Amino acid sequence: MIVKEYYPFSIVEDKEFGKLLKMLNPGYDLPSRKTLSTSLLSVLYNDIVENGNFVSITTDGWTSVKNESYIAVTTHFIDNDCKLKSYLLSCFMYSESHTSDNLKNELLRVIKEWGLEHRVSACTSDNAPNITKAIDLCKWRHVRCFAHSLNLAVQNAIKEIQEVKEKVSGIVRHFKKSSTAAGKLKSIQEQLGYSPPLVLIQDVVTRWNSTFEMFQRVLDLKIPLSTALAETNYNEYLTNNDWIIITRACELLKPFKEITTEISSEKSVTISKIVVLSKSLIKYCNKIKSEHNTCMQISKMIGVLVSEVDARFRSLELNPLYAESTILDPRFKNYGFLHQYAFSEGKKSLISKAATVNIVSNTQEVTVLPNQTDDDSIWNDFDSEVGSIVQSSNPTAAFIVEIDKYLHEPLLSRREDPLLWWKLNQYVYPRLFKFVKKRFCIMGTSVPCERIFSKAGQTITKKRSRLTCSKFEQMIFLNFNLE
């Protein structure tokens, strides 16, 4: 209850809480605060251990209300039931004065403690220079957070309508701060039949989609908001041109919002969607580029979107990790690529690694009859002729046969679970399945770590400001990992 619902350890010393439990069960004695924080927490902490053959990790940083910096490391793997599992490995305190080399040592320490050396397929993070450098020093494949790159692209485009954005943000702040204005807006909505009344959304500097949500909510409340602004004598108002910009910006950014939501899942495979979503973005930008716009700000915004998307996402399909993952996804295969050349290179990349796949044969032993001997067998000539071929089966040739057969299978529906398909077909394509476990565990974004820090903000509060770093790390660990 304490780790999942963010209660302080001191709740066990609360007299009224103690009375409540006595009413429910007079024979139950509450553990002391010390017992909770030292013994029971550690027992649970040490109980949760689960590893996969191949794992990926995500990592990100966060600063608490106590101005302490933390780094989180999560692991992801495909379990024996073909399900994507995620666990928090560690959330450790990190000084910003630490070098990338220090951070590398900390990351390697965590991986070693969990016995995951030589199992890390890739590490996903944002573009923070210290983390990026540390990952390179660890000699891990680095996957840059797709959602973070998308955020940077859209943030740069939104700068072209900064004046309108600031005006809308100021209006929202006015209604957030003034109870009179907020009451007036609610009253007008009720008169107009809005049920339930909607609340304005304030944008957040670091999240572009919050700007989209702010704009969309303002559009939803256009009539009551305009009326409330006039009746409260607010000194700013939105012109017809402002409304045109807000409307068009929402139309332009809607696909980006959908893609951000799609790629941010941590319970489904995301790495194989990156090439497909990049292709969709590029095609979408080519479409809006050719459209005529009378508004100069919107034209400039489109220009930035087109150049940003092209620079950040066009070459992603040439990345072997992304290309191989796309091919191995039965929903996409070769249809997920913008260029056929990228698919061919991805297929070559998979085939080049075929020799590393070791498949144990399950063939049964042949029973030899008593009167049969190798010396006088009628099969001697045939066996001597083909024996060398059978003995030295080429793993690359076997892999090519397997991948070609797989590619000729019908495509799986986009809404189906690719892991379920592979669970049913893992013995049909055993060599490919080895790579599926290695690739599908890789996360397309560092969202899992960001969600951990959302919980961390509720764990370290003013009521819990005395939490030591070690206790905080264990509580975050349990909060994330306990079902």
TrEMBL record:
InterPro entries: HATC_C_dom, RNaseH-like_sf, ZnF_BED_domain_contain. PANTHER family: ZINC FINGER BED DOMAIN-CONTAINING PROTEIN 39, ZINC FINGER BED DOMAIN-CONTAINING PROTEIN 4. The keyword Acetylation does not apply. The lineage of its organism: Eukaryota, Metazoa, Ecdysozoa, Arthropoda, Hexapoda. Residues 402-482 form the HAT C-terminal dimerisation domain. It is found in: Nucleus. This is HAT C-terminal dimerisation domain-containing protein. One of its GO terms (molecular function) is protein dimerization activity. One of its GO terms (cellular component) is nucleus. The keyword Metal-binding applies. Keywords: Metal-binding, Nucleus, Zinc, Zinc-finger. Signal peptide: none annotated. Pfam families: Dimer_Tnp_hAT (PF05699).
